[in-house]
TrEMBL record:
Name of the protein this chain belongs to: Ferredoxin
Parts forming coiled coils: none
A Pfam family matched in the record: Fer4_7
Keywords: Iron, Iron-sulfur, Metal-binding
4Fe-4S ferredoxin-type domain residues: 253-309
Domain of life: Bacteria
PROSITE patterns associated with the record: 4FE4S_FER_1 (PS00198)
InterPro entries per UniProt: 4Fe4S_Fe-S-bd, 4Fe4S_Fe_S_CS
Gene3D superfamilies registered for this protein in UniProt: 3.30.70.20
């Protein structure tokens, strides 16, 4: 699998200011993306004035959260205690997972890192634009923080966006505690958090048995569907890895199509997976997705709300989806009878 260059992701491209060295370099190498990116840059910023959901107070909550995360990211790496603590694989693996749960993670998994889990080059920030990603740890600790169902069901209104930013904060805190703890006992560790990833979190999460990547490109867990935010801590501390099993989630996505049908930007593909760079997967149109964010003023979230896994399904059906299309049909019928295509919570929030 070819490594992804962070300079190519839509959030990085949206940050390149005309006249900057990053802008000149990127579009010299990728002239075919310049026109669409310039158009997106001219639109209001998500949560900004001029978007459909803008509110001078409520939108500021999301902006404040991202500013906080930006200030926090410099603590993702730090000094390692020279006095290494000896432990057993079983003890430290249990401790790491327990600590993640204690600080708010709903799910935790561990995997050996692969080269393709890392970006090839950095691209989000001018200070390290274009730097090759060479820091490769042996293990990845990945965790999922659940987001509130009622808030996500407000998508694409501002309540959904505020819940998502809260999820990023919660994941960042869990990652900070784990990375600080690991360095405290004498091993290197890095927290990968919003705006400061060196890794592609859904790939690490899938390899760590937290779920499977669905039609919309997001990780779908059995427990909460895609209604989670992910965090990753990479480390050289020896740990016990989790075993991956076929959960049948991709099979479910092939039959479902809810997210593709409800996507306001028509960014999520219908139909089967296609071979892309040697791998069978679905590929969303990031520009179409991001253009909705720019118009609406939140990160949309309709695909999170429309996924049946976000709302809980019969446990016996979920356990037996792989190779069982009848169970998938039963689960889809039950979801549609209860929610239609998707639930929508349009009631005023008590304090928003």
């Amino acid at each position: 699998m070819k490594r992804v260059d962070e300079r190519d992701i839509i959030f990085a491209r949206a940050s390149y200011k005309k006249g900057s060295s990053q802008y000149e370099d990127y579009y010299k190498r990728n002239p075919e993306k310049q026109e669409i990116d310039d158009t997106l840059r001219e639109a209001p910023h998500p949560y900004g004035e001029g978007t459909a959901t803008y509110n001078p107070i409520n939108s500021a909550i999301a902006d404040a959260t991202f500013h906080f995360l930006g200030d926090m990211k410099k603590y993702s790496e730090g000094k390692i205690n020279p006095n290494k603590v000896e432990t057993t694989l079983e003890e430290i693996t249990k401790k790491i997972k327990g600590l993640a749960n204690f600080y708010g993670a709903s799910l935790v998994g561990i995997t050996k890192m692969k080269e393709e889990f890392y970006y090839s080059h950095r691209g989000r920030h001018p200070e390290n634009y274009g730097e090759p990603v060479t820091q490769h740890h042996k293990y990845g600790i990945v965790f999922a923080v659940e987001m509130d169902r009622d808030m996500i069901n407000r998508a694409p209104l501002i309540g959904e966006g505020i819940e998502v930013t809260k999820g990023y904060v919660n994941a960042a805190v869990v990652g900070m505690i784990l990375s600080y703890f690991i360095r405290e006992i004498g091993y290197d560790a890095r927290n990968h958090m919003d705006g400061n990833y060196l890794v592609i979190a859904p790939l690490v999460a899938e390899a760590a048995a937290l779920g499977e990547i669905g039609r919309h490109g997001l990780l779908i867990t059995r427990e909460h569907g895609p209604r989670v935010r992910l965090g990753v801590v990479t480390t050289d501390l020896e740990l016990i890895c989790d075993e991956v099993e076929n959960l049948g989630i991709r099979e479910f996505c092939r039959m479902c199509n809810n997210c593709a049908m409800t996507c306001p930007g028509k960014a999520i593909p219908h139909g089967p997976q296609k071979e892309i760079e040697g791998e069978n997967r679905w590929k969303i149109q990031a520009e179409d997705c991001f253009s909705v964010w720019k118009r609406v003023g939140t990160d949309c979230g309709v695909c999170l709300s429309s996924c049946p896994f976000s709302h809980g399904m019969d446990e016996e059906l979920i356990k037996n989806l792989a190779g069982n299309p009848e169970n998938i049909k039963k689960a889809l019928i039950a979801h549609k009878e209860k929610y239609g295509i998707r639930p929508f919570n349009h009631t005023p929030h008590p304090w928003l």
